[in-house]
């Protein structure tokens, strides 16, 4: 049975009853006020299930959901659905997406590409690569943490511009063809890579150490100071006669290197030690009689600041007092300024004891100086005191065949305005003991201890005929008064770091071999002086026994402290490498 309502304005009114349809309802247009569905296929009451995967729900107007809308895939095809339309509701700033969930506001398993500035006021945690083609601006009072690891954990393939924190070196570093320390917001005071601090040089020459008796027939005998070296050929810069520089010659050639020293008159065994050419001058011709071994600069008192700068070169950063100066009133105390903040590698060598080779029957050997190194962190502008040890003086007196050598000076690296406190010491490289008298078969003198950490102690003991001990950090060496004049002990840095004077003379005939600058102990006739050090070495107990070298020390806050034993250079030295140069 069918019922038809054919007029479009006609209604089928059912009041206070129900319309039950067990079949289908076919209609072109169905207008409803309120409708509630609970079909048999629905799993949840009050829901409508749509199974058409293409157009389950179609609407040309708004869809207002007051509860939760759970969606699988959402595809927006309308051109009016722009970012402005999508984000305008509830957002303060147009064209933005505001996410208020502090835990997982934005989660993505893919890459995030930022084409312009990225401004972050909170924290950013990135578990994988983050590529930014614009700028990254970080504001606030927080911090930016960079990757960190040991030297061995550096990236296997490094590229220019990388920055990381090196936990081995305790410093930031950046890669620019190599890994270098990174100093942010700083600059260097002057260009510095490395430098060797040394005294004016000298070597042993034993062929002519005094004027032979056969020369006595020459009425006018003088010697001319010259630069050090191994002399293969030489001409004279000039001849001195009666205090007058006569000139007539242009150069002195030292092993193929031409030098132009100033000719000066000296008496034998007096004045500034140097290499001295003995000559005869008769007013028209000259004859080179021989070469006397000595040195430029005072072995015991240390070089002057002018001698040091001249030795380093006529031009360079060392010619500027703000970079390198001398401690006021302390000859030989060099005051060096660190040009930048960072870790410097410092290698220190103590001096050898005084040699006596060629002066007599036996060729006894002096003790060698210590060789140590360490990495020390310095702040830009920090000034450190450098005292470079020198070897004991070579005997040249009339009794040289029975004269032992003075002790070698230690090399000291100290804090500016140092006191006597132990924390004022960066490094000490001990000096070797002086060689024994060539009249006795003494053999090898005691080397400085450069193989292990020593203690900052007192001066070495004295023994024998006025031979003295080398200086230590806390005290001078000790002088024997049995025959000596008491002037022979090595002096500690707090009192000037001078080498000890010779300790014995007999009726004006000196047995002279003072200790080297840096605190070496002076000799006492045929007894040799002890070397200076953190703790000074003792002088020899007799003419047939050896003297001892000093000990070495490195401040405990240094890193990579290395005790390399000994070296065979005559004088001490200090070699400093700037951060990133080792």
Describe the structure.
The chain is 2% helix and 19% strand. With 582 residues, it is mostly beta strands. It folds into 3 domains: 134-181, no CATH class; 186-200 and 298-582, no CATH class; 213-292, no CATH class. The strands form 8 sheets. Strands 15-16-19-20-21-24 form a 6-stranded antiparallel β-sheet, with no helix packed on it. Strands 7-26-17-18-25 form a 5-stranded antiparallel β-sheet, with no helix packed on it. It has a 4-stranded mixed β-sheet with strand order 3-4-5-6, with no helix packed on it. The model is unreliable at 202-297 (pLDDT under 50).
Salient structural properties:
582 residues; mainly beta; 3 domains; six-stranded antiparallel β-sheet; five-stranded antiparallel β-sheet; 2 helices; 19% strand
Structural class: mainly beta
Helix fraction by DSSP (H/I, runs of at least 4): under 10%
Order of helices and strands: HEEEEEEEEEEEEEEHEEEEEEEEEEEE
Count of distinct strands: 26
Tell me the distance between the termini: 106 Å
């Amino acid at each position: 049975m069918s019922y038809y309502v054919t007029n479009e304005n006609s209604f089928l009114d059912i009041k206070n009853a129900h319309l039950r349809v067990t079949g289908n309802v076919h209609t072109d247009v169905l207008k409803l006020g309120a409708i509630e569905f609970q079909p048999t296929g629905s799993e949840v009451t009050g829901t409508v299930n749509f199974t058409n995967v293409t157009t389950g729900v179609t609407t040309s107007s708004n869809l207002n959901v007051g509860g939760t809308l759970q969606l699988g895939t959402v595809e927006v095809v309308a051109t009016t659905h722009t970012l402005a339309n999508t984000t305008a509701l509830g957002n303060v700033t147009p064209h933005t997406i505001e996410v208020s969930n502090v835990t997982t506001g934005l989660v993505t398993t893919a890459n995030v590409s930022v084409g312009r500035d990225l401004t972050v006021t909170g924290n950013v945690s990135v578990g994988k690569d983050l590529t930014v083609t614009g700028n990254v601006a970080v504001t606030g009072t927080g911090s930016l943490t960079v990757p960190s690891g040991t030297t061995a954990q550096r990236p296997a393939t490094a590229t220019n511009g990388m920055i990381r924190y090196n936990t081995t070196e305790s410093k930031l570093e950046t890669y620019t063809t190599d890994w270098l320390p990174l100093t942010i917001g700083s600059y260097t005071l002057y260009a510095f890579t490395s430098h060797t601090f040394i005294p004016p040089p000298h070597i042993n020459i034993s062929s002519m150490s005094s004027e032979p008796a056969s020369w006595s027939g020459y009425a006018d005998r003088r010697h001319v100071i010259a630069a050090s070296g191994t002399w293969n050929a030489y001409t004279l810069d000039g001849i001195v006669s009666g205090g007058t520089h006569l000139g007539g010659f242009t150069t002195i050639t030292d092993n193929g290197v031409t030098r132009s020293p100033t000719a000066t008159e000296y008496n034998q065994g007096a004045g500034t030690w140097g290499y001295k050419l003995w000559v005869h001058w008769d007013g028209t011709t000259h004859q080179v009689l021989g070469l006397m071994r000595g040195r430029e600069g005072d072995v015991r008192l240390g070089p002057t600041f002018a001698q040091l700068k001249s030795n380093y070169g006529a031009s360079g950063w060392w010619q500027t007092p703000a970079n390198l100066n001398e401690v006021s009133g302390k000859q030989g105390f060099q005051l060096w300024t660190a040009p930048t903040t960072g870790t410097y590698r410092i290698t220190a060598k103590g001096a050898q004891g005084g040699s006596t080779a060629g002066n007599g029957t036996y060729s006894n050997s002096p003790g060698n100086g210590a060789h140590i190194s360490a990495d020390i962190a310095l702040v830009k502008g920090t000034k450190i005191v450098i005292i470079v040890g020198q070897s004991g003086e070579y005997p040249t007196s009339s009794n040289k065949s029975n004269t032992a050598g003075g002790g070698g000076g230690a090399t000291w690296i100290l804090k500016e305005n140092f006191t006597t406190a132990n924390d004022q010491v960066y490094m000490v490289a001990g000096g070797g003991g002086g060689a024994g008298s060539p009249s006795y078969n003494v053999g090898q003198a005691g080397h400085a201890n450069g193989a292990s950490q020593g203690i900052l102690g007192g001066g070495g003991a004295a023994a024998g005929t006025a031979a003295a001990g080398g200086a230590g950090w806390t005290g001078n060496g000790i002088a024997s008064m049995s025959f000596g004049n008491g002037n022979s002990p090595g002096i500690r840095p707090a009192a000037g770091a001078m080498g000890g004077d010779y300790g014995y003379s007999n009726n004006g005939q000196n047995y002279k071999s003072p200790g080297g600058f840096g605190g070496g102990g002076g000799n006492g006739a045929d007894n040799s002086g002890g070397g200076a050090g953190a703790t000074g070495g003792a002088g020899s107990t007799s003419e047939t026994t050896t003297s001892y070298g000093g000990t070495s020390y490195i401040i405990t806050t240094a890193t990579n402290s290395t005790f390399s034993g000994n070296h065979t250079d005559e004088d001490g030295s200090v070699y400093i490498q700037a951060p990133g140069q080792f």
